[in-house]
Amino acid sequence: MQQQGPSGAPPAVIELRGITRVYGRGEAEVRALDGIDLTIRAGEFVAIMGPSGSGKSTAMNVIGCLDSPTAGEYLFNGVDVARLDKDQRALIRRHYLGFVFQGYNLLPRTPALENVELPLIYKGVGAAERRARALAALEQVGLANRGHHDPSELSGGQQQRVAIARALAGSPEVLLADEPTGNLDTHRSAEIMELLARLRAETGLTIVMVTHEEDMAAYADRLIWMVDGRIADDRPTQRGARDAG
Amino acid sequence: MLGETIRLAVRAIWRNALRSFLTVLGVVIGVAAVIAMVTVGQGSSAQVTRDVEKLGTNVLMIRPGQVAMGPRSSSGTARAFDLGDVERLIREVPVIETASAAEQSQMSAVSGNLNHRTTVLGAGNAYLDATDWEIALGRRFVTGEERGGRAVCLLGETVRQELFGNTNPVGEAIRLKSISCEVIGVLVAKGASSFGSNQDDIVMIPVRTFQRRIAGSSNVNMIYVAVRDGASSDLAKVEIEGVLREMRRIGAGEEDDFTVMDMKQLASMLTGITNVLTGLLAAVAAVSLLVGGIGIMNIMLVSVTERTHEIGIRLAVGAQARQVLQQFLVEAIVLSLMGGLMGIALGLGLAMLAAQIMTIPFTPDPMVVLGAFAFSALVGVVFGYFPARRAAQMDPIEALRHQ
């Protein structure tokens, strides 16, 4: 489905051109993003780092179509989505994106399996197929036997894996992970990162992850460093350089 | 998708079962009150019609004065009838089977040391014929007793119970004011009338006895007329009016100074009153439905705030505003429909109980039940819309941040 670009590189999934996001007006104006240019190609695993207030979360929100930029172009698979309205952005999220958050964001008092089914409900998938796909997604994250457990009965690492299964269930093109290991200890964090890396390898998923931990960023193959709403540095990680070489 | 939403709504409601129940209590009470009121009202209307039919559709009532559609309003200025008028009517109007004066007054009936306040009716055997009232014990009046105004009486079942218990009172004496009256019979029990007044709480004496010894005047203020079988009561009415106008020397073009009422008129008058009362009570009850609706809106607003984070998650995975709107709207509607169903059950139960106590027919009206159900759905839509819209308009980033 994905064609090779002219240079032989995979095609761009996400292209930001001069993306600016301004909060407030006049004196109180804050430029959270200040003219970002960024291209992410299919199958890339990109980590975004930077000090707090550097705009990395805002960048994630814009890339995730949760927010609209004040100015600039955002091409998703070549289509400008920067000017879409709320409901159109919801459709982009529904059909192309999957989210993993620091706080897991599972529906409380709702079994894991039903949490994983949630995006499929909005995709209009019928009950039987929904159940099957949700089970398959849980299996991918190694929790096939935990489907009937409520989130409160699962450990943090398990909850995050349920969240990853939920993101995967809708078969997205891009997985957006906002500090996915922020609430986990080192051991669990490593498990989650290995899971993400494996899923990327198996499915060719594109992953964009915000983190403030170097160790986690090391699982990506490209690291973007943000400062004051701009991209200060953009280079391959060791792993990325090794894979390329 | 709608089935999914309904399932979700039921689950959300069930999760907070107690709170949901308290929330819909207003709707439950409102719907129950409306249904109970209307059902009891319709039952008593049916009972009035039935009672009047039992009285006989061939019975006419004549009163002095113009009584439009209310009891004893303007009879003050009109001349009363007398017993001569009653006899002349029987003589001159062939379709009249029988006619009787019927005078009444409230007073105490005393027997030994027992005392019971009751209605004393002065009337004759003709009244018993006109109203189809049988004797349970003893006998009716004899002609001599009626003509001579003798001190004899028939007891209603209630008066008999109060003064004599289950013993046979025939031959005993009771005192009404200063007269001592011999009990010659007991009337068959009739039960409560449409308005709950006890028809058996009565002592009947000959009308002449009533006039001489109780009223102290020869006036007659009410005449019961029974029309011959097969004769039209409308026709009888016209004939009676003609004879009465002549008897009372009313010139052409002058208004009648009396009223001839048939039972159809009486029935429609009584059911008219019942319907007005029912409507009024139902309107009051409907106000509590409104209050119930506000209760639902209140709790839905709380629920939307509590579930902000959930809304954020749903938006993040691709829910559109109208889907979130639909979810909360359906929840409000399901909630108020549940209240409506409980209210219908409770209301019908109450109406059934009331019907038994008041001995009126229990006639639930499917249209009323359906209407109440539809109305509770409407309450859900109206009062659920505002909270649902608030949920739908949330910003996904803000909502996700809300914990």
Automatic annotation (TrEMBL), chain B:
Keyword rRNA-binding carried by entry: no
PANTHER family cross-referenced by the UniProt entry: ABC TRANSPORTER PERMEASE YTRF, MEMBRANE COMPONENT OF TRANSPORTER-RELATED
Regions annotated as coiled coil: none
Domain MacB-like periplasmic core positions: 20-241
Superkingdom to which the source organism belongs: Bacteria
Alphabetically ordered keywords of this record: Cell membrane, Membrane, Transmembrane, Transmembrane helix
Amino-acid biosynthesis recorded as keyword: no
Transmembrane spans: 21-40, 276-304, 332-355, 367-386
Membrane topology note: Multi-pass membrane protein
GO molecular function per UniProt: transmembrane transporter activity
Location(s) in or outside the cell: Cell membrane
Record-given protein name: FtsX-like permease family protein
Boundaries of every ABC3 transporter permease C-terminal domain copy: 283-396
Cross-referenced InterPro entries: ABC3_permease_C, MacB_PCD, Macrolide_Exporter_MacB
Family of the protein in this entry: Belongs to the ABC-4 integral membrane protein family.
GO cellular component, one term: plasma membrane
